[in-house]
Amino acid sequence: MIKRAVLTGLLTRAGLSAVRAQAPSRGRRVNHAGRTVDLHAGPAGAVASAIGIGQLKPGVGAAVLVAGACGAYDDVVGAGDPRRGFRAHLSALRDGEVTSGAVKLFGVGAAGMFAGALLKERAVDRLLAGVVVAGTAHFVNLVDVRPGRAVGAVLVLGVPGLLRGGAARELSAAAMGAAAAVLPDDLGERSMLGDTGAHALGAALGAAIVAGNGRAGLVAHAAAVVGAAVCGSAVSRAARYA
Fold first, then answer.
1. Which residues in 127-151 are b (16+ Cβ under 10 Å) and which e?
2. Pure H helices in the chain
3. Where are the domains of the chain?
4. What's the rounded Cα separation, in Å, for the pair 168 and 184?
5. 104-123 pLDDT, tens per residue?
């Protein structure tokens, strides 16, 4: 567990340094306080968490990477789009417009279902697992409204997985290691996760939750993330982290 967390954390820091060195002026945003920060923590955390999880479960690691890629697409293409929340993007889709938010919604959903199919055996459990993985990815993105909140959510919600042992412990360690590595830059308002990092770390956390729960736990977590998505969608339109 400790080895996986440390490895993922070191990979994240190395990735963050490398991205900053190669593209110091790219991917910059103005945050809630009017400060200019970079988005480099997102790709660094996404790739590192995918690698850390992929060492244990390669397919799930790939799903985490896909979730991050969908977030990256929205970070780039959706920058400046005032529409917020699932309802706005689904309404645009009904009108024939495929927004970056819609791509993210369905792409992360597909990645979650794929991860769920790999983590569970029975059809019902796979469906619930997919909802938990995708829903947790969206939840972490929803709470990313101020420095440290999304990272803090991953660190706090990852603790139960550490206590369960087995695959849940290792998957939690990978997600938490990446989150802890970007925490100083996030709190210091030097970098932010963006949709890239929030969705990847959220998907990694969701996979850990799935690995540590049976059907009853999956039902409870699925209900929680769906409820959070419904309630948080309206809030995110009013208070969005850059």
1. bbbbbbbbbbbbbbbbbbbbbbbbb
2. 2-22, 41-54, 58-77, 86-94, 100-119, 123-142, 149-157, 159-164, 166-187, 194-211, 215-238
3. 2-13+37-238
4. 25
5. 889 999 999 999 999 999 99
